[in-house]
Amino acid sequence: MHDILQFFKLLKMEKGKEDIMPKVELFTEELNNIPWQEKPEGFEGPVWRYSENPIIKRNPTKEIGRIFNSAVIPYEGAFIGVFRAEKADGIPMLYLGRSEDAIHWSFEEESIPFVDESGEPYVPVYAYDPRLLKIEDTYYMIWCTDFYGAALGLAKTKDFKTFVRLENPFIPFNRNGVLFPRKVDGKFLLLSRPSDSGHTPFGDIFLSESPDLTYWGKHRHVMGNTHNQWWQSVKIGAGPAPIETSEGWLLFYHGVSGTCNGFVYSMGACILDKENPSIVRYRCGTYLLTPEEWYEERGFVPNVVFPCATLQDKKTGRIAIYYGAADSYVGLAFTTADEIVTYIKENDAKSQGDDTIGISKR
Ligand code: BMA
Question: Taking 90 as the threshold, does the pLDDT of residue 237 lie above it?
Fold first, then answer.
């Protein structure tokens, strides 16, 4: 009798799951060659790691000691990426990498040779945490650079041969700039995280818009740190470019916890309103990845999981997430659009004000 009751209970749970399990559509391109591994048998969470992590190990070239927090994109049937790499001087710079399978990468030995808009060579003092995306027919990269303190750097390319550095979007201090992959209402959209000049013990995500990538305004608060979820209680920062889905913009981000042994960086996710992305529709209260593996816990900076890029396939809904691990390696993790959106909705724990337009504190 007990078994029969249990059976019906499980059936009801499964049925209930189906009802809330959306068939989430990705408004992205079909990409049937992205890295993929099925979820391991018995694994409970919505995001699982690639079994061969880290995909980029220490000393990946003769001169580069570490590559992490980097961005990749499909290009001409294969993949290209902008990588945060550090040579023996320890100064982060951006390097180009290419791959056939988006797992095994080869890197250029010299950092990206930017020119400014008048064609003169431009060498950033430092450059780190790049994001890379295509808007219309142009590729943009945005990163953290020096501009009398930490600020956002921006450049464009059409062919990955000529890289034109554009004016910095904002005054200092700011980090974690992330552009949207298309204009919304005719405007470029940019997420950013105002900061200080050091390791910043605070930080909320804001949204700004621009008609031309030069003049930025209509700044909106998107969401902040939380006090009741400790994994994101110090600060948060946008991760990969938001992914457009039938449920809204899927945004992976990092959340930081303060411990007596320093910051711990985990990955979380939320869904932003489609038309008005300063409104958070759902925000997952629990982290999706937190440092657990040796390459996340041990490295130049221990306990860091820092997502910077995704590749996704419209047809299957598969999503591959690239993240920096312990400021030393690049890791890869997987989910699907259905699975992640369902999980975010089931674990929704928005904070007060997340669901407002963010024009002033209520
Ligand atoms: C942040 C950035 C990231 C880094 C993280 C942990 O402030 O500098 O590049 O991964 O700290 O060190």
Answer: yes
Residues 316, 32: Cα–Cα separation, whole Å: 8
Judge residue 355's burial from the number of C-beta atoms within 10 Å of its C-beta, 0-12 exposed, 13-18 middle, 19 or more buried.
middle
In degrees, rounded to 5, the angle at the alpha carbon of residue 70 between the alpha carbons of residues 67 and 74 is: 125
Q: Which residues contact 97 (CB under 8 A, 6 or more apart)?
A: 70, 72, 80, 81, 82, 83, 105, 106, 107, 108
* Main-chain phi, psi angles of 341, to 5 degrees: -65, -45
CB of 327 closer than 6 angstroms to any ligand 1 atom: yes
Cα(208)–Cα(229) distance, rounded to whole angstroms? 26
Q: Strand order in 48-49's β-sheet? A: 48-49, 329-336, 318-325, 305-312
- C-alpha distances out from residue 68 to 52, 93, 107, 163, 241, Å: 16, 11, 13, 21, 17
Reported residue count of the chain is 362
Interval between CA 295 and ligand 1 midpoint (Å): 15
Residue 342 identity (one-letter amino acid): T
Ligand 1 atom closest to residue 263's alpha carbon, by position in its atom list: 6
Q: Over 50: is that where the pLDDT of 334 sits?
A: yes
Answer yes or no: are the C-beta atoms of 283 and 351 closer than 8 Å: yes
Ligand 1: which of 298, 306, 330 to mutate, judged by most atoms within 8 Å of the beta carbon?
306
Helix or strand run (H / E) with residue 254? strand 248-259
Residue 18 has pLDDT above 60, yes or no: no
Among candidate residues 25, 33, 21, the one with its CA nearest the CA of residue 76: 33
Query: CB–CB of 88/65 below 8 Å?
Result: yes
Q: Is the pLDDT of residue 1 over 60?
A: no
Rounded mean pLDDT of 69-80? 98
**DSSP letter (8 states) at residue 89:** T
Rg of the chain in Å (alpha carbons) = 20
- CA distances 254 to 60, 225, 249, 268, 306, Å, are 25, 10, 16, 6, 6
Query: Tell me, what DSSP letter sits at residue 116?
Result: -
- Ligand 1 neighbourhood includes 306 CB (under 6 angstroms): yes
For position 20, what pLDDT does the model report?
46
